Amino acid sequence: MLVDQRQGARKILRTRAMWLADGGSPQAARTLDLGTGGVSIATDYRLDVGRTGQVVWEMLVDGKPQIVTVRVKVANCILGDNQFKIGFTFQPLDHEAQNAINKFMR
Questions:
Q1: Does domain 11-100 have CATH number 2.40.10.220?
Q2: Are 45 and 64 in contact, with CB atoms under 8 Å apart?
């Protein structure tokens, strides 16, 4: 049985997103959930654990749409329901992204 290794609370967040691997081209994705330590997405392609890049999505912050861009590192990648589910850990967040995520998590 797999044990969920993510730390902290997380909330469901289902929205369109984009994954941009370092040195790669943008790839479409969908967010699954968000926490203070990371984000998970669903994609049609596999990602190697340890790969770094950026995830970009839009969410409501204080009732207004805000684009959030974060640096991430792939923590896990599993195939399920004909899609890959990718778990990312945040790399140091900038102030704007940190505030948006904190407000969403309240």
A1: yes
A2: no
Distance between CA atoms of residues 12 and 8, nearest Å? 13
Positive or negative, the Cα torsion across 23, 26, 32, 38? positive
**Domain-wise residue ranges, the chain:** 11-100
pTM to 2 decimals?
0.89
Mean pLDDT of the chain: 92
Listed in sequence order, the DSSP H helices in 1-106 are: 95-105
CA 90, 35, 46, 16 torsion-angle sign: negative
Question: How far apart are alpha carbons 85 and 47 in whole angstroms?
Answer: 9
Contact 78, 84 (CB under 8 A): yes
